[in-house]
Every structure is written in structure tokens, then in C-alpha cells.
Amino acid sequence: MLLLAFTASTPALEKSKKADYSPKVKKWLNKEITVKFDDYRLDTCIAVCKIVTGADMMFEVGTKVEDLPKINYYAKGYRLSKVLDDILGKTKFDWKVVNDTILIVKRTY
Q1: Which of 80, 93, 96 shows the shortest CA–CA distance to 26?
Q2: Which residues of the chain fall short of a pLDDT of 50?
Q3: N or C: which end of the chain has fewer CB within 10 A?
Q4: pLDDT, averaged across the chain
Q5: Residue 57: its pLDDT value, please?
């Protein structure tokens, strides 16, 4: 299982009229978010992380979450839930929230 922590920060949204946050998303803003991948394929995990964060990241197998750099996430006018839905809708993965952790899991049909 691979863990990735990043901070949700949306300076552009604060000035935007689209800043319509659900209470669930509001509590994540400017706080560290832990994303947990319930899959051992590192390339898949990194691909999803790259799209979510917009960052060009390379991690080695076995990297611990506390060793990862903090990455700012810019939602660009969209709710975090919509961004995750859009990204993961094209993959075999889905997401759910468990104890304030976004858990990315294999989709069950």
C-alpha cells in the first residue's frame, strides 16, 4: 500500500465565485490530506497522484509517507470530490473517505 500526503490549498478558489464547498471538502482545505492507495502497482499510484496534484513526481518503492514532500493541490474551480471522480472515472479505481483519509481502491463492479 502506498501513502501520499499533500496539502489542499485553493487560493484561486477563495477569490472565485465557484467556491462552493461541501462541509466535507471545507474541512480539508489547507490541511494535510493523506491519500492511501489500496494497490501495489506503483506506476498506477504515481499516475493518479500526478494528475491529482499536477506535479511531476518520482517515488521509489517503499517510500514512507513522512519522507514524501508536501505538495500543494490546486482545485482550479472544482470540488475535490469532482476532481477525484473525473480522474478515477476513467480508471479501474474508485475513492472513499475513511477517518479523514481519502482511500483509493480498486473499483468493484
Answers
A1: 80
A2: 1-2, 6-19, 28, 30-33, 39-42, 53-78
A3: C
A4: 51
A5: 42
Cβ atoms of residues 104 and 33 within 8 Å = no
> Read out DSSP for 10-58?
-HHHHHSTT----HHHHTTBTSEEEEEE----HHHHHHHHHHHH-----
Mapping DSSP to helix (H, G, I), strand (E, B) and coil, where does residue 68 land? coil
Burial of 75 (0-12, 13-18, 19+ CB in 10 A): buried
Residue type, 90: K
Model confidence over 31-62: pLDDT tens digits?
444 555 554 444 555 555 555 544 444 444 34
